[in-house]
């Protein structure tokens, strides 16, 4: 891929309840003044970074669509608030991240009447965040792509545990033992968790090096925003959820009026039961399930990666009128 023009910087984030001066780190790809809608990419987690989101920079050379990625507050190169707000469930709420997203949009002038507008592309937790903004029918929003989405925290958890039930019995037993003891340090649990990751998160053997670090991070006690919002255990249960407990956007989904694309994988941690209520309620929606893929389709070989990017490119550049699943 030829070198893509890029810029990076920070955006001041005004949070009245925080003493620390906060900022959001961003990076742009392509020319935001080209007259086409800007693709705003929302990374997963919560508590992860925009590292993988930067793969979407290819939308510029392939389709002439400029791209903005950013590290959400508390993550990556943006302000870390562990010392001031670490573990504070009342602070780490979905509304905080919606406020930050709106700040990013306004920084780039994407809600101005003269702007060509923007598309939202969110993956996993990023899809939850994208849907939270989309239901408000914000000015400038053109299209929405929800990758590995979930309609509610309850359904997300149910889908994860369906996938656990597809593992060999020994791995299931080790995971259930870990859930009971809340101990992620044993070799027995670590091996079972790796089996889970390779079953429904990224179906690669060996795992890419980035995922080796991801497993180490998820099974550690130092997960910051992630453990505050999802709970202390890497495989979420109804009893262990943090500030995302009870999150459910199902009753508001019909308020998304922008054309929407749903994508999940055949073996995705985001099981079909998480996606179906979204498809049922958004008026203008298309749902595509990628064969042989799981949660991280972007890293699962060239065939799956190509299918993934083709879906996104076609959706963002062609008129979509049908409500279909594939």
How does this model look, in words?
The chain is an alpha/beta fold. The chain folds into 2 domains: 6-152 and 247-317, Alpha/Beta hydrolase fold, catalytic domain (Rossmann fold); 155-230, no CATH class. The chain contains 11 helices and 8 strands. An 8-stranded mixed β-sheet has the order 1-2-4-3-5-6-7-8, sandwiched between helices. Strand 3 (38-42), helix 1 and strand 4 form a beta-alpha-beta unit. Helix 6 (169-181) packs across helix 7 (187-200). The protein is globular and about 60 Å long.
Give the strand order, joined by hyphens, for the main sheet.
1-2-4-3-5-6-7-8
CATH architecture label of the largest domain: 3-Layer(aba) Sandwich
What's the average pLDDT?
95
- The CATH H-level homologous superfamily of the largest domain: Alpha/Beta hydrolase fold, catalytic domain
Number of domains: 2
Strands, total number: 8
Instruction: Provide the succession of SSEs.
Output: EEEHEHHEHEHHHHHEHEH
Structural category is alpha/beta
Features:
326 residues, alpha/beta, Rossmann fold, 8-stranded mixed β-sheet, 8 strands
Could you write a compact summary of the structure shown?
It is built from eleven helices and eight strands.
How do the helices and strands line up, and which of them pair or pack?
Elements (H helix, E strand, L loop, with lengths): L5 E8 L8 E8 L8 E5 L16 H5 L3 E4 L11 H4 L8 H14 L10 E6 L1 H10 L6 E7 L5 H12 L4 H13 L5 H14 L8 H10 L6 H6 L28 E7 L6 H10 L3 E6 L11 H16 L9
Parallel strand pairs: 3-4, 3-5, 5-6, 6-7, 7-8
Antiparallel strand pairs: 1-2, 2-4
Helix pairs in contact: 3-4, 6-7
